[in-house]
Amino acid sequence: MTTYYTAADDDQAVQALKNPPTGDEVLTSDIAPDDDRFTALIELVTGKQLDQLDGDEYTVRDDVATDATQSVVALGSGLVAQIADRDAQEFTDLAGPWSATDAFDGSADPAELVDYLTDLQHLARNAAATNGGVYAVESF
User: Fold this and answer.
1) Residue 125 near residue 84, CB atoms below 8 Å
2) Burial (Cβ within 10 Å: 0-12, 13-18, ≥19) of residue 58
3) Which of 45, 7, 8, 52 is nearest to 26 (CA)?
4) Is the pLDDT of residue 55 over 90?
5) What is the pTM of this model?
6) Three-class SS of residue 76?
7) From its phi and psi, is residue 115 left (phi > 0), alpha (psi between -120 and 50) or beta?
8) How far apart are the C-alpha atoms of 82 and 120, rounded to whole Å?
């Protein structure tokens, strides 16, 4: 399971390894930033294959922190901005093609993906409003 949350910076984000984030500013999902389903999302949001993206603003930075059982990763600022700027209809339009990607093996419900995107957008907008970032704790 992956827990997404907002933090002011990498130093604050690392605290999630000791004290898991809780509250309204948390999204728990089985969609992890390092799996094919998230890669498919990045590619749909940006309109480019992952290997065609320059820099790390649309990718996931996995060098924030790691311990024996968890890793903290940061979502790229460009990806966070694109998710924050979408409207509800765009998420509905995006969920269908996303659910049809090979990454889901035909087992995804587009309505559940819209819920995930809406919750992720809440975090992205909060991060933008506070000049912070969106992070995720992934358990091994």
Assistant:
1) yes
2) buried
3) 7
4) no
5) 0.93
6) coil
7) alpha
8) 11
Length of the chain: 140
CA distance to 28, 38, 53, 104, per residue, from 2 (Å): 6, 12, 24, 17
Q: What is the C-alpha to C-alpha distance for residues 109 and 52, in angstroms, rounded to an integer?
A: 28
Which residue is it, tokens 């049809």?
Answer: 100
Q: What are the CA-CA distances from residue 139 to residues 41, 59, 64, 74, 87 (Å)? A: 21, 19, 14, 15, 31
Q: Is the pLDDT of residue 99 over 80?
A: yes
Segments making up each domain of the chain, as ranges: 2-139
Q: Give, in order, the Cα–Cα distances in Å from 110 to each of 78, 104, 125.
A: 24, 11, 22
CA distance 125 to 107: 29
Local structure of 3: helix, strand or coil: strand
DSSP string, 86-114: --HHHHHHHHHHHHTSGGGTT---HHHHH
C-beta of residue 21 within 8 angstroms of C-beta of residue 4 = no
Q: How far is CA 116 from CA 17, 64, 100, in A?
A: 23, 23, 16
**Residue 50: pLDDT over 90:** no
